[in-house]
Design a protein that fits this description.
Blueprint lengths: L9 H9 L7 H11 L4 E4 L6 H13 L9 E4 L3 H14 L7 E4 L6 H8 L4 E4 L1 H7 L12 E4 L2 H6 L3 H9 L6 E6 L4 H10 L4 E3 L11 E7 L5 H11 L5 E4 L3 H13 L4 E4 L5 H12 L5 E4 L14 E4 L6 H8 L9 E7 L4 H11 L25 H24 L6 H14 L1
Helix pairs in contact: 2-3, 3-4, 6-8, 13-14
């Protein structure tokens, strides 16, 4: 099925052609017709399947030719990166139309967001927390809202946003079209959908979550202390040219970034402690090919859209199988192919087993020829949290002791007195 078969407005069709879209993906084939008809949609769609266009294009089509000046659509998403990605898709698809969108998320000053909402921008793409901040004011009531989309609903649940989402929903008009997209359907999301959607079209709800068909998956067994050496070896040999590398924690992301830089590898990191400008700069550099490696935590797993990304590497095996699906979904997007490699220590075997149960098959094991798996390594990769806290407490105690010592020391004599004492000492000599 081609996009021409949907008979989109000529201005929208032009934007589709500009992006080089021709054949609709399965989620687009299934979701666009009922969405165009005004039906609510409940869809289980894996990352990289083309679902953004599946909910954006019907909204644009139904907005075509009608007056603007009011916010008619709200898209809720869990992360800043994903909000920015959706906004970019909207701008590209709507570039030949008068429809305009804006992002609303934390980490940046809210003044521009306030102006956009007050000005009646057509589509708002928002994370729940910052949107609730705006909704405390009279000018952010969304009384003319016609379309609501919850994207990556399961991730919003994982990140603790469900209470915020419910507070937002309580303040929105009841008469609207609603679409909910999620890679998995845990119980709380199913319950939310029952209260949120009216007689929805259900798409792939019973489908087993799995990576895109173009992803080649492999487990690389390796001792924990040799993971960094394995990664630098593969990068040094050119076996991995460009990679998005996922770590379990922000601290481990920082440590890996430091070690890769010392090895002469051009890289950057992206996680929750980085400011929004830092995250945007790192992601832009990675997309533009200025970096070989971008180290990330799971906060970025559902918000990074890099064309033709050849490798995703799980430096740490994810705790939840669903996170594995989303991480490896950063490669092989839109019908392309890519490699998803997972570095697995013996201590992570239970997590690997859970992932294999989730994807329904045993993942290939792979070793790297010539790599010394028996080497001692360069010591600990990560300092345990307890030790870091103890060191921090010791540093604070030392600082307080120095402050007390300065406060208890006798004050120096006045400057004039010191000069007279110096003259007397000179005359005595």
């Amino acid at each position: 099925m081609t996009f021409d078969d949907f008979n989109f407005h000529p201005a929208i069709a032009r934007g589709i052609r500009d992006l080089g879209f021709t054949e609709a993906t399965p989620i687009q084939r299934d979701a666009i017709p009922p969405a165009l008809a005004g039906r609510d949609v409940l869809a289980c769609a894996m990352t990289g399947s083309g679902k953004t266009a599946a909910f954006v294009l019907p909204m644009l089509q139904r907005m075509a030719g009608s007056r603007g000046g009011r916010t008619r659509a709200l898209i809720l998403t869990p992360t800043r990166e994903l909000a920015s990605q959706i906004h970019e898709h909207i701008e590209a698809l709507a570039r030949h139309t008068p429809v305009r969108s804006a992002t609303v998320f934390g980490g940046v000053k809210p003044a521009a967001q306030e102006r956009a909402i007050k000005g009646g921008v057509d589509i708002v793409v928002a994370t729940p927390g910052r949107l609730l901040d705006h909704m405390q004011h009279q000018w952010a009531r969304f009384t003319d809202l016609e379309f609501l989309v919850l994207d990556e609903a399961d991730r919003m649940l994982d990140m603790g946003f469900l209470p915020d989402v419910k507070r937002i929903l309580a303040r929105l008009p009841r008469e609207r079209q609603t679409m909910l997209f999620s890679a998995t359907m845990p119980g709380p999301i199913v319950e939310l959908s029952r209260s949120l959607l009216a007689d929805p079209v259900r798409i792939d709800i019973e489908r087993r979550s799995k990576p895109a068909t173009g992803v080649s998956q492999a487990i690389l067994p390796v001792p924990e202390h040799l993971k960094t050496e394995l990664l630098t070896t593969m990068l040094g040999r050119g076996e991995v040219e460009t990679a998005l590398v996922f770590t379990r924690t922000k601290h481990r992301a920082n440590r890996l970034h430091q070690k890769l830089e010392r090895a002469g590898i051009v890289c950057e990191r992206i996680h929750g402690n980085r400011s929004q400008p830092q995250r945007e700069k790192a992601l832009a550099a990675f997309k533009n090919g200025e970096l070989r490696v971008l180290v990330a935590t799971d906060i970025a797993a559902r918000g990074i859209d890099v064309e033709a990304l050849p490798h995703v590497i799980n430096f740490d095996v994810p705790v939840q199988p669903e996170d594995y699906i989303h991480r490896v979904g950063r490669t092989a997007r839109a019908g392309k192919v890519g490699d998803a490699l997972t570095f697995a220590s013996p201590e992570e075997k239970a997590k690997v087993d859970a992932i294999e149960r989730a994807v329904g098959r045993r993942i290939e094991r792979r070793t790297i020829a010539g790599f010394d798996y028996t080497a001692r390594g360069e010591g600990r990769f990560e300092i345990p949290v307890s030790e870091r806290l103890a060191a921090h407490r010791t540093q604070r105690a030392d600082e307080r002791a120095r402050t007390r010592a300065r406060q208890s020391a006798p004050p120096p004599p006045p400057a004039g007195r010191r000069r007279s004492q110096s003259r007397r000492a000179g005359s005595s000599r």
